[in-house]
Fold this sequence. Notes:
Number of strands: 9
Helix content: 40-55%
Strand content: 5-15%
Number of helices: 10
Oligomer: single chain
Amino acid sequence: MPIVADNYEIVIGVDTHAAAHALCVVAAATGAVQDKASFPASPAGLDRARTWIAHRAGQQAALVVIEGIGSYGAGLSDRVLAAGFPVAEPSVMGSADRRGVGKTDDLDAARIARSVLSVDIDRLRRPRADGSRVAMRVLVVAREQMTCERTRAVNALTALVRTVELGVDARKSLAYSQIKEIATWRARSEDATTATYRAEAVRLAKRIRALDAELVDNRKSLDALVKTNAPELIGLNRWTQHSRSGGCCGSSIGLGAGSNGQGSDEVTGSTGPSSVEGTAVLGADQYWQASSRGS
Length: 295
């Protein structure tokens, strides 16, 4: 199979950061540095970087290798692709290749460019971060954050009612009906300390219920995007079980993430790879990798 060095005349590496991007042009045949530049990561700066790339490429066959296409490099990647240049992500660079070598943004940009010179054309990591896939990734990350917050709230409420006498039977995991009841508590005529405990319990219970509703909305939005962009996932057994159980990405709660916001009566929380009612749940990385195969 042809490699990058055989197919392109120059390779432009981009080391991306929040404030500025460093660009370096290397000869594909030798890896020698031909030019370098740095541009601010502002819209105007990214436009200038795209113009610089086009000027340096001229009529030569050029490949642009951008680090962090899904994060800091997203804006420049979109502009370069729109300008008609092929874009790829850098290959993994081992620590041995960097040992004993200075580290600057310019050197990193050169290493990024050189990392793909011997890679087969068909094995280049092409960007797939179009609008719909970015939206799915945003929803997956949001779901994981909400789930982690919900787990913390459940654990905090459980610890509170087990520590302070508020009339709640917390010998077992809190039931959904108990959380609903706590959320409806009103201020009572009691000492200030107990009133503080009760107010905090109400706050936690209300937050749990609010997160339940947010997780339901998140689930609906995810399902809609998956049906549009990766419909083959809907038929997969793991996805069907994941959707039915309301499984969460990265962590799971046996309550509140289901299609009706009720789930099972028992509230459970866990972190890391997990399962709900014996069903394996897709983690955030697994979900994103699977959904990325949709096109």
